[in-house]
Please model this.
Amino acid sequence: MSLTILKVDSSARSEGSTSRDLTNHLVDAFKAKHDDVTTISRDVAVGLPVVNQGWIAANFTDPAERTDEHKAALALSDTLIGELRAADAVVIGVPVYNFGVPAALKAWVDLVCRARETFRYTEAGPEGLLTGKKAYLVVSSAGVPVESEVDFATRYMRHMLAFVGITDVTVIAAGEQMFRVEEALEAARKQITVSVESFSRAA
Model:
């Protein structure tokens, strides 16, 4: 079975990052399990532009009427959305910074959540367009218990993914490392093993 995985890393640490180590471990586990795996790697921590006036103007201009300037403003967003569309599975490293997601990951979210591209408005409300995909949130924290009431990062990412149509989400948790680092990492690795063994394409 051929499989395309989009791996998104967002930790500000290029070395010594738990979330990066675990996203790599997850992708390697998939490669060991499946013969034909293509990986698209996107490191958002190197810097993404934030949404500004020019981007908003371009996005809300009818595609048939967009100028070259509009198209240039949306070019990176188009690329990021293309990576999402191409993926069967999405692996996202989510280090918890001050109870939420890193600014770089929020910038990625803003660039991929686009009306008519990844979601649309209907009479029944918003409808996600990126269906049929599986997502893995690799969540690491120093002190925050993952999926607790003060973990706004995991809740936010779950909601964002569902908003664009990705509702099959598994959380790989490596939380509270300040207090139990080895136990947290071992638990996360076990979750990865179980997740890869039980993988099936989302409906």
Q: What stands out?
A: The radius of gyration is 17 Å.
